[in-house]
Structure formats: structure tokens, C-alpha cells
Amino acid sequence: MAAIFGVISIFVPPLVGDMTVPGIDVSGNFLLWVFFMLVTVIFVIRALADALSFADVLTDIFLRRLGAKEDRSFKRVGRDAIYIILTILLASAFIPFLSSVAEIGDMLRGAASLVALGLVIVLIYDIGRILYRTVEAKAEVLADRLVKLARRRRKKKG
Question: Do 78 and 125 share a domain, yes or no?
Fold first, then answer.
């Protein structure tokens, strides 16, 4: 796709360079650039969806090698951690490109930063919720064992 966009960007912009779209008073270059960006965003979304499914498979392999049980909550924590890393990497890769957009680059950069921050916060909250639930369940099991042990000792004494 990058090669196709490269070839198109060499030949097409000179053809529409000074044209103005009637009715909306937008230059042909800008309209073409917006169209290319929309198509690029669609392909990036598709690539991210494929990358997330690939990350799920890699997480499963990684967690199996670590010896983690087939516990869905630990898999989910691992996936969330990978999603956090991917979000940070993608945001840091795209923010310089967004800031170079004429006129609205600063707004796009700020919006991308806030979206990335929001995703990271949601993922960290999900990890915390899962870990809290796991620790709470383990604490209840430990408390039940201690109660049983205390009852056995009382029976032996009494």
C-alpha cells in the first residue's frame, strides 16, 4: 500500500495542484490529501486488528512458556499488558506525523495523546480489577483454610 500511495502521490498531485473544488473552496491537493489519509486510516485500522489477533496468539504462547495455567484472567492481564505497550508505541509513532499536519496538527496531536492515555488508563483499570478479584479469591481460600485449622485445634483441645 505504501508503494501504491508513493506512486500516486508522485503523479496525481501535479494534475490537481491549482484546482479548486467549486462550492467548498478547497484546493485539489488538500482534498486529495484528505482522501489519502482516510484510506490510510482504514488500512491502519485493519492492520491494527490483525496485529491484535497476532498479539493474542503471541500472548498465549508466551504465557504457556512461563507455565501459567489456562486461567483466563491471567491471559487477559497478559493481553492487556501487551495492548498497553502497543498503544504507547503506536501513539509515539503517530504523534510526530499528526503534529506535522497543517493548521490542525496541534489539535490532532493532543487528541491522539488523550486517546492513548484513555486507553492505557482503561487497560490498567482492567488489570487492577482482575488482580484484585484474583487476590480476593485467594484470600478467601486462605481464610477458609485458617478457619478449618482453628476448628480442628479447638476440637483437639476440647
Answer: yes
Angle made by CA atoms 78, 79, 81, in degrees to the nearest 5 = 65
pLDDT digits (tens, 9 = 90+) for 70-102: 566 777 787 888 889 888 988 888 888 888 877
Are 44 and 85 found together in one domain?
A: no
Q: Are 90 and 51 in a shared domain?
A: no
Given 44, 67, 90, the domain boundary residue is 67
Q: Are 94 and 111 members of one domain?
A: yes
Tens digits of per-residue pLDDT, 101-127?
777 888 888 888 999 999 999 999 988
Boundary-marking domain end, from 18, 52, 67: 67
Buried-exposed string 20-48: b where 16+ CB fall within 10 A, e elsewhere? eeeeeeeebeeebeeeeeeeeeeeeeeee
